[in-house]
Task: structure prediction
Amino acid sequence: MSLVGVMDALATHIETTLCGPTPVIEQLQVCNELMPNPTLPCIDIYPHEEDFQEQVAYGATKDSWMFRLRVRARVGTGDNEGGQRLLLQMMDPGSTFSVYATILANKTLGGAGLIKHCSGADGYGMYPSTWATPVTGHLGCEWVVLIET
Result:
């Protein structure tokens, strides 16, 4: 499976689990790529900036690759308390809003790849939206997911 296919499958899995048919998180936008100007709350997926791909096995029929992806959740700060509460619930591995538990709920991603590891939430803080004018910021955090194809 290609990198794009893996990112699509992970985004579809997160969206299916958290967005519907009975949404766990209301109006959550899930993107299979970096989303520079999101509708909040938002989860986007993009390659990790360090060692994001590595060949892990060689075979007669196909090569196996490990992709290291960032899954980032961002919430608005207009309602500071509400935004922080939602993000903390998304970070809590025992919550029904848990992004960590959602990612690990389907480790095969419908055959697109095998989730080998998902880190705990990290990077709690402000994420500037540098593509917006004027520059704004969103509160967020990240998980690092390792997927083998």
Summary: Residues 40 and 75 are 5 Å apart (CA to CA). The helical segments are 3-19, 80-91, 99-104. The domain at 3-148 is CATH 3.30.70 (Alpha-Beta Plaits).
